[in-house]
Amino acid sequence: MIKVNCLLAFTAINWILVINKVNGTIELDETSNRNNNNNQYFNKSIGDYQCDQYQDAVDAPDATWEPDQPLVYTRWSIIKGFTRKLKGIKVAHFLGIPYAQPPIGDLRFKKPRPLQPRNGYGADGRDEDKIFKAFDYGTACMQKISLILNFSHVPISEDCLYMNVYTPLDSLPQDSSTGSVKPLLPVSVHIHGSAFVYLSSADPLFYGGYLSAKANVVVVTFNYRLGLFGLMYGHDKLIPGNLALYDQRAALIWVRQNIAAFGGDPGQVTLSGHSSGATFASLHLFSTQSRYLFKSAAILSGTATSRSATDSRSAALAKTRKLVSKVGCSEANVDKSHYNEVTDDQLSQYEIDCLMAKDAYDLIEAQPDVNKEIFEWGEMCSLEIFLPFYGSPMFPESPDSMLSKGDFRRDISILVGRVPVESARGITQITWNVDVVRDRMRNEIKTVLKDNSTGNIERVLEYYFNDCKTGDIRQIAEAVFNLFNDICWHCPNLMLSSQWSKYNRVYLYSYTYKSNHLGDLDLAQLFGAYHTEDVSLIFGFPYSYCSHYSDSDRLVSSYMMNLWSNFLYTGTGDWPIVMKHYSVTLPFHQQITGIWNQKADKLDDKQYICRLLNY
């Protein structure tokens, strides 16, 4: 039996940063800053890591507001924002800008429609009544009330298609109605993660002010429809499905048409996503309807090539029918004489009318109950009923099929990121007896593997559990976490990286740094950094909530923001790309362990297990 060491070693990027543990000083070694001496985004000192205590919360405008209230001129309206000073840099904030018509009433379950110019816009540009005041986040999209209490920081509504723009104040045109000679900045458009069903761009995790200030870029975040409102398929025209993706496409079109007014370059847009947001971002790489709306992409902790990331059209419709039955919209025992003949491949007019008439809260509260009815451990990588589906104009084939055929854009670089523990899923399967756990895992993976022969299943179990001993609960737990994370995240990411590298540059990193806020007993301290750890530092979270993070955390946060800036400006990383040579993939990595970043190229060692897992 071949046993492959699961530890990864990676390369360094841009800087070697060392904290002297004896005297607490920080030293900056520029010897590894290869080929970047002329890049403007490295001019600012990365050692500017200390936190301004008066900025200990992003919701303290009385302490951080500046008098500037900039105006920008878009196709839709004049927009007024406000300014905060972050780390000595004034950042203009424009919050809650609508980017499409509200999907309410007859527009429920319909593709987003473009906005019309506001009444009176263009008659007198300086009239305050005609200026949209972008001072507050827009309402979040519909999600379960229990999730709202935990995650949402704004009210929810079906009227939720809003975006936020953060940009350095000095980068705004002096008068955007007449244009400006100022150089335009790269644009980071981020799709938030949500397991497809919760969160919004108002979540503090996605506050873009610090990233804009320290990376010198324009940052865009936005809401999109979630759960059944964003993904349910029922009818080609009346409930076409994939509406979350169409919302995201509408946001990208809005950015292309308007972002220059905010100092952003519409031809230099990087689309990023985390978790389910990464699934969406990678789907846009394949969609013929949106793949040309951005120049590069960053895929963090998720991908469309995961086996449970998408559904076929028939599977999507079958799930919808379960919801239809749950909310009392099934056609059973209903007089259908006034409706068209029922077809098996789409919902009937009666069912659609019934769904349209239902209260949005009733629909969203029914969704988890349907999840419980259909969820099987065979779908071990997905806990949500509604997923993006293929077999539609946006995705004629599955992402895996399009990837294998090379049916994607050939001139786009991607940055792929991952952490050791993407999920603690499977923790309920853990017990002290390794034989019991092996039996449980055998049942878990049997319906997931394409090659589910007894021999292949036993080879997979041997790989993860061969060294585990009954009674060593930590060792058993680590094996279970590795199994779930490899099947659901790491191997799909490597599959995407390997195939994409045939035609494009791919930069792959593994984030292993454990920040101070995790605590000594957190799972991450036992098994490694987990989901959202890297994206939280990319967005400068340690600067927003100083007391929960250390100066070392802010140092690594600055490092991650410079990495992000580097990719936005150049579409490259300062470490070797993933290379595909005939049948051999050489995926070099960047390991981000924090303050110790040393050059150590090494091939990835998970290719063996990914082959067994049929990726």
Q: Which characteristics define this entry?
A:
615 residues, alpha/beta, eleven-stranded mixed sheet, three-stranded mixed sheet, 18 helices, globular, disordered N terminus
Give a description of the structure.
With 615 residues, this protein is α/β, with parallel strands linked by helices. Among the domains are: 1-68 and 415-615, no CATH class; 311-389, no CATH class. Helices cover 31% and strands 15% of the residues. The chain has 18 helices and 20 strands. The longest helix has 28 residues, at 473-500. 49% of the residues are buried.
Q: Major β-sheet, in short?
A: 11 strands, mixed
Q: Helical region count?
A: 18
**Gross morphology:** globular
Low-confidence stretches: 1-47, 53-63, 337-342, 595-603
Which structural class is indicated by helix and strand composition?
A: alpha/beta
| C-alpha end-to-end distance | 20 Å
